UniProtKB/TrEMBL annotation:
InterPro entries: Sig_transdc_resp-reg_C-effctor, Tscrpt_reg_LuxR_C, WH-like_DNA-bd_sf. It comes from Flavobacterium ginsengisoli. Pfam families: GerE. Coiled coil: none annotated. The keyword Transmembrane helix applies. This is HTH luxR-type domain-containing protein. Keywords: DNA-binding, Membrane, Transcription, Transcription regulation, Transmembrane, Transmembrane helix. The chain crosses the membrane at residues 258-277. Residues 290-355 form the HTH luxR-type domain. PROSITE patterns: HTH_LUXR_2. The keyword Kinase does not apply.
Length: 355
């Protein structure tokens, strides 16, 4: 009997050494799911900060299939170097298409924070797929701590029937999450996800922002510092602008009267500029006019051109704009054709002469 236990222990140890090392590369996401279906498709998705419970085809980055033992693996160098929110999932019923299931009996997805240098391994967990994991990302651990803190706060909330009492519990939840955020959280993404949790509550964000802007300003500054002009920062900035009914960056703007005067001056200058442009264009040779007209770019092409001028690689451009690498290459080809250039250096030189 003792010998059998020793053999089982050694066998499991060998399996662990064989499987887990294979999970490690530049980044690696791997593990097992228990299913009778062979070649089960497993999806890896990149999420926006407020998409924890939303699933669409546009989120999906890659897919792979399990082998005969239920093992799956994603690895390589294509993910972002910065921490971002990802999801791994597999449809319980492929006929019904994309679906998220999470209850006491079944679970088919898992959201987690990850970067290009991390590893995560999912061990077998019955019908609750992806429920047991080992993630090397420290930011993800801090996020789990926040989730546990929030779960404790919401215990018993559903039993409260009085509307005033319900609103008070929500207000208490928000204040405690904000205090926890200030005391325990430094990563920008977790601050953003804490805001997302507050946003899902029936809470007056506009009034709270106007009375207590520090929480929101701290998130914005952290995002700008770590994520620069990526979608996390831009989406949150847009969210705050909508909540406050003003452009967030106008908090240091001049008095309304001065704004009116400046607006009139800008309008006058715009008219003068238009007239001058029209006059100059009328005397330009046809070939120069044609060149300028060819510089009309789409919004996406303008963004990509700007990032190229900032010496961003194609991969970095794809990460920042949340589009595929092939889409970036297509836009760059279109840019080159419109600008009549063949490389990035000629493109930069072109933009020196034309705004």
């Amino acid at each position: 009997m003792q010998q059998r236990k020793i053999i089982r222990f050694l066998t499991s140890l060998i399996v662990a050494f064989l499987i887990i090392p294979n999970c490690y590369g530049q980044y690696s996401i791997c593990g097992h799911i228990e299913t009778t279906q062979k070649n089960k498709t497993v999806y890896l998705s990149l999420l926006k900060y407020d998409e924890e419970t939303l699933i669409t085809e546009s989120q999906i980055l890659f897919s792979t299939q399990t082998d005969s033992t239920g093992y799956f693996e994603f690895k390589g160098q294509l993910l972002s170097k910065k921490d971002k929110l990802y999801r791994i999932h597999s449809n319980i019923d492929d006929i019904k298409g994309l679906q998220l299931v999470s209850n006491s009996d079944k679970n088919n997805y898992y959201n987690f924070i990850f970067s290009n240098t991390d590893t995560i391994y999912f061990s077998k967990s019955g019908n609750r797929w992806f429920s047991h994991s080992q993630n090397s990302n420290n930011t993800d651990r801090l996020w789990r701590n926040l989730k546990q803190f929030e779960e404790k706060l919401t215990q018993g909330y559903s039993e409260i029937k009085n509307k005033e009492a319900q609103q008070q519990t929500i207000n208490d939840f928000v204040e405690k999450v904000k205090a926890y955020n200030a005391k325990n959280i430094s990563p920008a993404l977790i601050k953003l996800l804490a805001f997302s949790d507050i946003k899902r509550k029936n809470f007056d964000l506009k009034t709270d922002f106007e009375k207590n802007p520090d929480f929101y300003n701290d998130i914005l500054n952290s995002l700008k510092s770590y994520y620069s002009e990526t979608s996390y920062y831009l989406q949150f900035q847009d969210e705050i602008s909508k909540i406050s009914n003003t452009v967030f960056q106008q908090k240091y703007s001049f008095h309304k009267t001065l704004n009116y005067i400046l607006g009139i001056l800008v309008l006058i200058l715009a008219v003068i500029s238009f007239l001058l442009f029209k006059k100059v264009r009328s005397i330009q040779p046809k070939e120069i006019q044609q060149e300028i007209s060819n510089l009309t770019l789409t919004n996406q092409e303008e963004k990509i051109a700007k990032l190229i001028l900032e010496n961003k690689s194609n991969k970095e451009i794809a990460d920042e704009l949340f589009i595929s690498l092939s889409t970036v290459k297509t836009h760059i080809r279109n840019l080159y054709a419109k600008l009549n250039v063949t490389n990035r250096y000629e493109l930069a030189d072109k933009f020196k002469n034309h705004t």
